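thread: overnight batch results

M.L. [08:02]
morning all. the overnight job finished for the chain we discussed friday. pasting input first so we're all looking at the same thing
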Amino acid sequence: MDFWNKFLKIEQMVVHHLRKNTVDDQEQALNGIDIAGKISGFPLLFQVGFNLRNGKTLDERKDSLELVISPNWDRKKVSLVNQVYEASKKADLPTYWNVVKYQVFEPSFVYELNVQGVTYEDFEYCAQLNFEGTKAWVGVLIFVKDELAKKILKKKKSDEKSPENNEWELDGNSVQGKAPLLFLNSAVGEYNMITRIKAVEFLPANSHQTIPRYSLADLHQEFEKIDRQDYEIDAIHSCVRCGYHSYQVDVAPCGKCKKVYYCDEMCKKADAKNHKFVCK
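M.L. [08:03]
and the structure it wrote out:
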């Protein structure tokens, strides 16, 4: 593939800058990868982790490099991400590189996010699980605390078809107006946001009082329910060592017990001492 051909031409330069581990050097490395993506027809978001795996510091990943390929929240670019990922398996990449799809997702990050005083406590949710053939998807109502809702929500304009429009929309002209989407992204992760959520509605907290609602920090659990129930033909599994999901990397079950999954031999070997006590 043209992208990997161009990447390999600058790979040593990228590694040189990454190992120097300064802000300027990291920016130069990412700029090089970004240019390789654009000129090869893959204008994606590229992120690099040094000595990290899924945002975690794991002893066995020392001196390893991780290239994260992201559609940058653009559903139209999902197929491009898949093309680059599949082609990476045939590219002659040095063994210290690991290629991953979609941005790192850690649900606890939602607790730390603060957008001009707006926190996760300003939102609650109600989710509805839906089915479409063999796929499951989620519709979400996001309730915004009343004081914030007055600043960032406004009624949609009425028209001849719906003269009494009761729908609300975000006023995205301010940073606080963009906050609900930022928190939703943080709460569920990039993959769930652009592939599993098909409908989102933002409402003032004082509306629809009979609808049950829960802390936005718990929204990720709705998608974990889908994973556990295997609603989809391609069931979602995760590596028991690093936590990456099967929509991000290829995972395979333990050859003996078939109950736990690993993304590669490195994670499998690192977990061997723990797994031997439960492997049957």
